[in-house]
Amino acid sequence: MNDSQSPLDKVNSWIKNSVGLKLGTITILMLLLLIPASMIKSIISEREMLNQSVLNEVSQKWAGKQQINGPILTIPLIYEYEIEDGKIITKTKYLYLLPEQLAITGKIEPEKLKRGIYEVVVYKSILDFSGQFKLNTKIDQDGLKEIKYDEAFLTVGISDLRGIKDQITLNWGNQKLDVQPGSKLNDMISSGISIDLPDVSNQINTNIDFSFKLNLQGSQNLSFIPLGSTTNVNLSSTWNSPSFNGNFLPDNREVSDEGFSADWKILQLNRNYPQTWIDKNMRNEMQYSALGVDLIMPLDDYQKSMRSSKYAVMTIALIFLVFFLVEILNGRKIHPFQYTLVGLALCLFYILLISISEHSNFNIAYLISAGITSLMILIYAKSVFKSGKFTGVLTATILGIYGFLFVTLQLADYALLMGSIGLALILGITMYFTRNINWYKLNMKTE
User: Fold this and answer.
1) What distance in Å separates the CA atoms of residue 273 and residue 292, rounded to the nearest whole number?
2) What is the mean pLDDT of residues 15-34?
């Protein structure tokens, strides 16, 4: 009887027992599984864009981000210049004066609005403005014909006028003045309110007190332009996840689970524009000095889901590594189709995570998704491995991966550190368990 194998049998035996071929096949499967992993990222981005569109839609109906710029006192100046042939031309210029003192005290009351399954952070605020103007500025006298003190006006910039909820009354000295919608300083302030002042000619070289209250609502952000020679801003809120932004951070801040409080003190010397000027557009300089706060959602579910999906390759590689080592150490043949099913189950985790987190707490969604995926893989692997020891190793690996990923998602600031330490541990463990394998003389057992 001839026991020699035919060429076809030799090829089949090589295909079944070649470690190099199996590694190549697993690598190709991993690369192919990057396609559904990439599609999952696209789904997360699409859902995040839909969430952003809902946020923008709600903000348009409620009120958008609010920035308060002002008050700015403006006085028209009439100049006459002689040109050729003795002709006289008249030109109107504007003198802009900023407050000597400006104090802003605000209380922000956040709200969460729901549109379908999405949440949007909006707020209501009560803002008290007070301060002083000092009318002792020196004016360029060359060609000056008249100073129209009786046409002086104040302008207060408000980004979204739809957010004003009550009538505004300006206390100017001992007078109460009504305000009008619209800005007369379109080059510097595109949206706001204006107040026509009584004749201020009798208030030269005096301090004029002013104050007004603003009941304002908006979305996500509230900011201010520090126009005073000395500007003091104090804000408080029950929102516990503020992000202070702009060109100045608070001098003092307190953030707790009950909310936050913060205060700023900005001097004229801290900004790049003067207290008075004539006919210059300081819009860019003023914008650069803005300060304020964002009412942000703590690392939202879409960001966490997107970050977790970036670990998909690592997760698939580690689980495939366990299956491959079982083949090497236990002599169990695992078909590429079985690898594929396990890889698809791992990809299913991210779909479950994003879909469940849209309807519940992210941590609960993570627990449910990881539990379902792990249970599917472990039940399947038990029948494939036929070994309690190796099933236990796989269980520890899956729990370790999902536990490591969960901790990394919670510690956003330490994600890189956690990732690098985790990868170092994984490599070390893999080297330890494979240290005694003779890869050159490896002979995989056949069934």
Assistant:
1) 19
2) 70
Is a pLDDT exceeding 80 seen at residue 181? yes
Band of pLDDT at residue 1, cut at 50, 70 and 90: very low
Q: CB atoms < 10 A from the CB of 29, how many?
A: 17
Instruction: Compute CA distances 365 → 52, 93, 232, 369, whole Å.
Output: 21, 63, 44, 6
The set of residues, in sequence order, having a beta carbon less than 8 Å from that of 246 and lying 6+ positions away, is: 223, 289, 290, 291, 292
Q: Tell me the DSSP string of 345-370.
A: HHHHHHHHHHHHHTTS-HHHHHHHHH
Q: Give the span between the Cα atoms of 114 and 112, in whole angstroms.
A: 7
Distances (CA, A) of 153 to 36, 159, 281: 63, 19, 17
β-strand 230-237 against 101-115: which pairing, if any? parallel
Q: Which helix (H) or strand (E) holds 301?
A: helix 301-309
Reading the block at residue 6, the tokens are: 């035919």
| Tens of pLDDT, residues 383-394 | 777 777 777 777
Residue 160 near residue 217, CB atoms below 8 Å? no
DSSP 199: P
- Can you give the pTM of this predicted structure? 0.67
Q: Quick one: which of 232, 262, 238 has its CA closest to 249? A: 262
- Token readout for 338 is 């079985």
Tokens 């210029």 sit on residue: 93
Please state, in angstroms and rounded to a whole number, the distance separating the CA atoms of residues 362 and 353.
8
pLDDT per residue as tens digits for the range 333-374:
777 787 788 888 888 888 888 778 777 777 888 888 888 888
Is 266:5 a contact under the CB 8 Å cutoff?
Answer: no
What is the token pair recorded at 410?
A: 């919670």
Q: Give me the count of residues in the chain.
A: 447
Whether 327 contacts 334, CB under 8 Å: yes
Q: At what angle do helices 7-17 and 19-62 cross, to 10 degrees?
A: 50
Cα 115–Cα 120–Cα 121 angle in degrees, nearest 5 = 150
pLDDT tens-digit series, residues 299-328: 566 777 777 777 777 777 777 777 777 777
- Cα-only R_g, the chain: 34
Q: What is the DSSP string of 109-127?
A: EEEEEEETTEEEEEEEEEE
Given a contact cutoff of 8 angstroms between Cβ atoms, the answer to whether 333 and 327 are in contact is yes
